[in-house]
C-alpha cells in the first residue's frame, strides 16, 4: 500500500496550491521540499517584494502570499517533509517511490513535480569565506530585523536594488556596491533607488571583510574601509534540477515536458509550475496555479477510475472537503 496517494515534490506556490486542491479532491497528500521552510523561491528570495499579478490581490508580498497559501494547504492535512531533496525514483505498476537525500522512502500512488527552477544555491563571493552566518546573509530576513544595522549589499540586479530600497527604510545605513557602472535592474526599480538615501557605489568591489566573531566592516575598492555588520551578496543563484535529470523524464532546457493533462513521459508522474515545458508556456505564478489544479484533477481520475475529471464548483460544497 502507498504511504500517500499523492506526493508533491516542491512546496512553492504551485506545490502548496496543489496540496490544497488534492485535499479538496479527497486525496491524501505529502509535501516534500529541499528547503527548510515552505514557500519555495518566493519565500526564500523575495519575501518582502510586492507581486502585482496574483488574481484577487492588487499587490501582495511574497511573505504574505506564502502565509495565505500555507494556511490554505494546511486544510488538506498534508504530511510535510522539509530539508530533504528528492533523490531517487522507482516505479512499479501500482505506485512510485521516491527516496530522499536522507534515505527516507515515500511510496505514493502518483507524483506531482512542482519544483520551480529546481534547487538553487547563491553565487559565492570569495571574500566572504568564513563569515557565513556571522553577518553575511545570503537569504534576507524580515526588513525590521535590520533596524539599527549598517548594511552593505553587493550586486546590480533586481534583487540587489530592491533590497537596497526596502532596507533603507529600516537600517541605520545601506550601501549598494556594484562592480560595473550599468545596472541590470528594472528601470522603475532604479528610479526608486535614485530617490532613496541609499549610498550607491559603482565600479566598486568588496576586496576584504573584517571582524572577529561577527562581521564589523568591509574594504571597498572605491572608498577603502567601511563599517558594516550585515553584508548581503545579491549576486544571483545557480539553479539545478539535480537528481531529477536521472529519472528518465523528457527534458527541454531544464524544464519537464508535459501534455495538456500535466502528465510527463513517465506513468503516474505529473508536473506543474515553472518546471514545465509545452508550446505557449508562460512562466507566471498564476499559470502555475491553473496547472496545479489541472494536474490534481487528472491525478484523481488516474488513481480513482470512475471519478469525474471536473470536480464541480467549490461553491456547490457545504465545506471544501468530501465527507
Automatic annotation (TrEMBL):
EC number per UniProt: 1.18.1.2
The UniProt record gives the binding positions of FAD as: 33, 41, 46, 86, 120, 274, 315
List residues traversing the bilayer: 6-24
Q: What cofactors are annotated for this protein?
A: FAD
Q: Which reaction does it catalyse?
A: [thioredoxin]-dithiol + NADP(+) = [thioredoxin]-disulfide + NADPH + H(+); 2 reduced [2Fe-2S]-[ferredoxin] + NADP(+) + H(+) = 2 oxidized [2Fe-2S]-[ferredoxin] + NADPH
UniProt keywords (A-Z) are:
FAD, Flavoprotein, Membrane, NADP, Oxidoreductase, Transmembrane, Transmembrane helix
How many and how are cofactors bound here? Binds 1 FAD per subunit.
Oligomer and partners: Homodimer.
Q: Which family does it belong to?
A: Belongs to the ferredoxin--NADP reductase type 2 family.
Instruction: Spell out the protein name for this chain.
Output: Ferredoxin--NADP reductase
- Identify the species of origin: Nonomuraea guangzhouensis
What lineage is on file? Bacteria, Bacillati, Actinomycetota, Actinomycetes, Streptosporangiales
